[in-house]
Design goal:
- The structure is a single chain.
- With 310 residues, this protein is an alpha+beta fold.
- The chain has two domains: 31-186, Jelly Rolls, CATH 2.60.120.280; 192-298, Arc Repressor Mutant, subunit A (Orthogonal Bundle).
- Helix content is 47%, strand content 21%.
- The protein has 14 helices and twelve strands.
- It has helices at residues 8-11, 109-112, 115-118, 121-124, 137-153, 158-181, 183-190, 194-207, 214-221, 225-236, 240-258, 263-269, 275-286, 290-298, and strands at residues 12-15, 18-23, 26-29, 37-41, 46-51, 56-63, 65-70, 73-78, 82-85, 91-95, 100-106, 128-130.
- Helix 5 (137-153) runs antiparallel to helix 6 and helix 8 crosses helix 9 (214-221).
- The chain is globular, with a radius of gyration of 20 Å.
Length: 310
């Protein structure tokens, strides 16, 4: 990987409502200050070459078509249809002049931290395509348009209000998934004591910055580590190790963006044993070092005080 810092021209592509910040195929979303959601309205014909980002992307097409190319499939999203792309999934987007759509980008942390959302990780890590005949489409469209209206009104606390609508979107999707797409998963979850598993998730959330292990969390809930490991994956959809890693990375990203603390402090406060481990894991997961991430992302907060922030 080329680790050189991108220059200003390669970092930013100017659009009517702001910037795309690119480093190779990695895109960093230029959110307004104190926000973690961004909504792009239509700009006519557009082409966004293959890229990925930490944000979840939802496209709601009103007119025409949006053509998405993903590693395993191609989606021709037509008027009235919705496509949800999970965090980190590479994709390419082509739009014709007639395409009218809203594209919502938002960080998964606030939603992914909810206990019941963590229990449907299998669904949230997949591409979700709602065709025009989907029974969920109307309810999803109403919620997404409420989020769009809230976003562009920009009243105080709009970021939190938008996430409220997005949480309702995930509640709608989750219920449908558990009732129809994965009935066996729902049966398995019914045999697991949710109170115990939720207490484990809470414990991880309160102690992820410490050197906790599978053994220590299993001891906390009174299970053997082998039983806890299997049960945790059944309940959350991911392994304990992956769950803890995501928790620590999300914390690190927040510190990098919202503070100027030294990298060694960010590593320690996020639960990584050393700066070397932190740098290695961060590069593997984010395709850049923590220092590069901060330099690229930190420069996006109101780079031009006269430009309009959407």
């Amino acid at each position: 990987m080329d680790t050189r810092q991108p220059d200003e021209d390669s970092k930013r592509q100017r659009f009517p409502s702001g910037f795309r910040i690119l480093h190779g195929q990695q895109e960093y979303i230029s959110y307004a200050e104190h926000a973690s959601i961004r909504i792009w309205p239509s700009f006519g014909a557009g082409y966004y070459n293959n890229h990925n980002h930490s944000a979840i992307e939802i496209t709601l097409v009103h007119k025409g078509e949006a053509h998405y190319t993903l590693p395993e499939d191609v989606y021709h999203v037509k008027a009235g249809e919705i496509l949800l792309i999970p965090s980190g999934c590479p994709h390419e987007l082509r739009e014709a002049d007639t395409c009218d759509r809203h594209l919502l980008l938002f960080e998964p942390g606030p939603i992914g931290s909810l206990r019941d959302v963590q229990s449907i990780n299998t669904m949230t890590q997949q591409v979700i395509y709602l065709r025009e005949d989907s029974e969920l489409r109307r309810g999803m469209t109403e919620l997404l348009m409420k989020a769009v209206d809230c976003y562009f009104r920009k009243q105080p606390m709009y970021n939190a209000e938008c996430y409220g609508y997005l949480m309702q979107v995930y509640a709608l999707l989750g219920r449908h998934y558990l009732e129809t797409a994965a009935p066996q998963a729902a049966v398995r979850h019914s045999t697991i004591d949710p109170e115990i598993m939720n207490s484990a998730i809470t414990y991880i959330g309160e102690h992820y910055m410490e050197p906790i292990t599978l053994d220590s969390v299993a001891d906390f809930v009174g299970f053997s580590k082998y039983y806890f490991s299997r049960t945790f994956k059944e309940y959350s959809g991911v392994t304990f190790t992956d769950f803890l890693l995501v928790k620590r990375l999300n914390a690190a990203v927040n510190y990098l963006i919202r503070s100027d603390r030294p990298i060694r402090d960010v590593a320690r406060m996020s639960g990584f044993g050393s700066v070397a481990t932190f740098n290695r894991v961060f590069r593997e997961q984010k395709n850049c070092t923590p220092t590069q991430f901060r330099a690229i992302y930190g420069s996006t907060v109101n780079p031009d005080p006269n430009r309009r922030i959407f």
